[in-house]
Amino acid sequence: MKKGFTLIEIMVVIVIIGVLTAVGVPKLFGMIAKAKASEVPTAAGTYVQLQEAYQSEKTIIGSWKNIGYNAPGTNGVSNEFQYSGCLEEDTPFTGEKLTVIGWKATNRNTLNQCSGNNGTWAVQVTAIAEHHLKYANLVNSEECGMLTTSWTVGSIGDECEGSSGNTQQASSDPEPQQQPETQQPEPDEPEPEQNTEDTCPGTNTACSNDSQCSLGGGATGQGKEKKMDCSKKNFKSCCACCGS
């Protein structure tokens, strides 16, 4: 008597296949993309070796033609990448620090998460001194950088011109000169009016005919307590306001 698979067994097998597919397929595509991108480090390494050999004799950064470099593919175009060199002529070392993009590669097709024509790898060459060149491997995005190891994610310019490390670009528009501010004369403060009325001794309070004399607290009868001579002219008003 023949026995078949039960429904539970079939479902378990399907689940296992699904898990393996979900885990294994992305890794498989990633391995394929890395295998295709492996030509980039190799091509860049060949360029650096030829450049080193050339500048050791000429003390300059050489063009592809003069250093004898041939990019992969036909006329710098392979199945997956397009290669270009920024220097059409040799660049002599003038004694100042000089940085140029000597080698560049761009992917023609999508490689895993690195979309087509958006990934750029470049070799930045910096002339520090005679017979001393420094190289930096750059890639323009993290997604494309995952395809190659030991490449630094950074900005890669489209221009092929060299830039001196000691030169700063001056602004074409001069800054407007600030005009000195004109100081306005401050208005004269009005002088306080002088009080012509008599004041009680020891205070600045003018005497009045009301009962609020400010001598010693404003109580009445302060004129006698202060021993004022109310017969004198300058004390008469004070004695009057204090009720004396």
Order of helices and strands: HHEHEEEEEHEEHH
Question: What is the overall number of helices?
Answer: 6
Proportion of residues in β-strands: 15-25%
Please state the average pLDDT score: 74
Largest sheet composition:
6 strands, mixed
The proportion of residues forming helix, as a percent range, comes to 25-40%
Shape: flat
Radius of gyration: 47 Å
| Oligomeric organization of the protein chains | single chain
What is the number of strand segments?
A: 8
Give an overview of the whole structure.
- There is one protein chain.
- This protein is α+β, with helices and mostly antiparallel strands.
- It is about 30% helix and about 15% strand.
- It contains six helices and eight strands.
- Strands 2, 4, 5, 6, 7 and 8 form a six-stranded mixed sheet that branches. Strands 1-3 form a two-stranded antiparallel sheet.
- The longest helix has about 30 residues.
- The radius of gyration is 47 Å and the shape is flat.
- About 15% of the residues have low confidence.
